[in-house]
Amino acid sequence: MHRETKPQAELKYLQSVTNERKINNWLEMKVANFRQTPATETELEKMRQDMELAMLKYQYEEKQKQRQHKEKMELMRLQASGPAAEGLQDLLRPQDQLSLFLYCFIFIHVIYAVRELLFFFVKKHHLFVIAVTLLYLIKKLWNYLWAICSSSSYTSG
């Protein structure tokens, strides 16, 4: 049998006491932590809720920024398209009696010049004009007859 010497027995005893102290210290810490757990849990819950609140606030602000950006872009688009059309209308609208007279004068002379050009073209190229007119009439007649034939084939079939 194995006999322990006195120093070995004392060493074993000291180790067991030291281990017991470590275990007791660990248990005391666990008990203290266990007592602090409800307070810690409430703090953690509060921190989690604060974090969620901060995230919601950030998301709300981000959506507000996006909405404002869209509104600004729409306003800029409307402003960009608005003045161009209004400016063109203002340009064509006569400001006084003299400009109205000039507009009418120019318009009447443009019509007169176009009419004279057409008459000149007809005089010089009367055969060409007659040929174009006949081709136009033949095309219209052909389309009319084609429409009548195609509609009668649907009704008879």
TrEMBL record:
Query: Does the keyword field hold Transmembrane?
Result: yes
The cross-references to InterPro entries, in alphabetical order and at most eight, read:
TMEM247
| Alphabetical keyword list | Membrane, Transmembrane, Transmembrane helix
- Note the superkingdom of the native organism: Eukaryota
Q: What does the entry list under GO cellular component? A: endoplasmic reticulum
Offer one Pfam family short name for this entry: TMEM247
> Could you list the residue ranges that cross the membrane?
100-121, 127-146
Its name, as the record gives it, is: Transmembrane protein 247
User: Whose protein is this, by species?
Assistant: Crocodylus porosus
